[in-house]
Amino acid sequence: MPRVRPPQSDAGQVHLLTTSLTTATGDGGPTGHHYLPALLVTDITAFLNDRVEGSTTHPGYASLVARRAIHEGRVTQETGESQLAENDLETHIRDYIVTLARRSFRKKHSAAVLDFHQVNHSGEVPVITSREDRRTLARQLIDGDAAATAGGFPAMANPSAAELQAALDTATGEADEIIPADRELQAIVEQIRAARPRAVELVQEILDELRHATRKLEPGTARDIMRSYGVTFEALEGELPAPGDVPVTPPVPAVPVPPPVTPA
């Protein structure tokens, strides 16, 4: 016989609570079936929905979980855009150093131009292992171009110091945009964390009430009623899961123990 599978996520809790609220509202109408007490329905409604006090709106659990998904998407987007900007900055840095070295060798410029940029005389690109490495190296090259042109060398081109500065500014700006997005996400995560115990409690109350209210019904009918309230079942080994249910969770395979080694 399938067993009840409590929601495994915040979104799953919202789904069960919302479905239970909708179904209970319908059951309390013309059909007159009351599988959940009126007080529990009221508690679920208050927990899920936003609450307005004066000019302040306090988000309900459903809003918090929905907002978290939105802010997670925003953080992911900002992080992706930042990484693209970082990659572009690193490309500018590498192209700048390679072009500078090749120009210096081709035009037989003094190695001083490389010294102005703090680039070794072989023209190798330094190892870049962090965001701060990129920032430091980009500023070093930009300052080096100013020093080199002051010393009589032609300004760098393809990329120029101005292009490198633009790539640096873009990378810095994109990185800065992650912080406020992440702060907003963390604030919502904390609100969900504080409300989660109540969500678990309400879910358990729904399950207990449904079990009690359907205890005298034929098992298949009882499960169908519970499914209409958003309850999911887990099929046991050898059973076919009903639509919306999940197959049995396979046990974690045991780690094989090697046979004992017999001394030669």
Question: Would you write up a description of this structure?
Answer:
The protein has 264 residues and is mainly alpha-helical. The protein folds into two domains: 103 residues, no CATH class; 109 residues. It is 62% helix and 5% strand. The strands form two sheets. Strands 1-4 form a two-stranded antiparallel ribbon. α1 packs antiparallel against α3 and α3 runs antiparallel to α6. 22% of the residues are buried.
Strands ordered across the widest β-sheet = 1-4
The class by helix and strand makeup works out as: mainly alpha
In N-to-C order, the SSE pattern is: EHHEEHHHHHE
Largest sheet: 2 strands, antiparallel
Strand content: under 5%
List the helices and strands and how they pair.
Elements: E1 3-5, H1 10-27, H2 38-48, E2 51-53, E3 56-58, H3 61-106, H4 112-116, H5 131-150, H6 161-213, H7 219-228, E4 232-234
Antiparallel strand pairs: 1-4, 2-3
Helix pairs in contact: 1-2, 1-3, 1-6, 2-6, 3-5, 3-6, 5-6
Labels describing this entry:
single chain; 264 residues; mainly alpha; 2 domains; two-stranded antiparallel sheet; 4 strands
Q: Short description, anyone?
A:
The protein is built from 7 helices and 4 strands; from the N terminus they run E-H-H-E-E-H-H-H-H-H-E. It has helices spanning 10-27, 38-48, 61-106, 112-116, 131-150, 161-213, 219-228; strands at 3-5, 51-53, 56-58, 232-234.
